[in-house]
């Protein structure tokens, strides 16, 4: 999962005041507090892999025959290789 926060949005606006560093730091502080609240709620919920098929999401993703993949690449992919065959 990804959790992203925006600090300012003036980089794309032509007619806007410059953003002050104090504003950015204030928003970063708010983002940190919001992230803490989100994570605390997240960890309270049970995470069960059998509730979704996410553990199998890479099944069939590998098109190259396994015997054609160099050992160096197999080693690099070892953490996920058993899920994509």
Task: Describe the protein.
- With 85 residues, this protein is mainly alpha-helical.
- The protein is built from 3 helices and no strands.
- It has helices at residues 21-44, 71-76, 78-84.
- The longest helix has 24 residues, at 21-44.
- It is elongated and about 60 Å long.
- The protein starts with 20 loop residues before the first helix and ends with a helix.
Mean pLDDT: 80
Strand tally is 0
Give the percentage of residues in beta strands: under 5%
Poorly predicted spans: none
The helix-strand sequence is HHH
Jot down its keywords:
0% strand; mainly alpha; 85 residues; elongated
Put the structure in a nutshell.
The chain is mostly helical and 85 residues long. Helices cover 44% and strands 0% of the residues.
What is the fold's blueprint, element by element?
Blueprint: H1 21-44, H2 71-76, H3 78-84
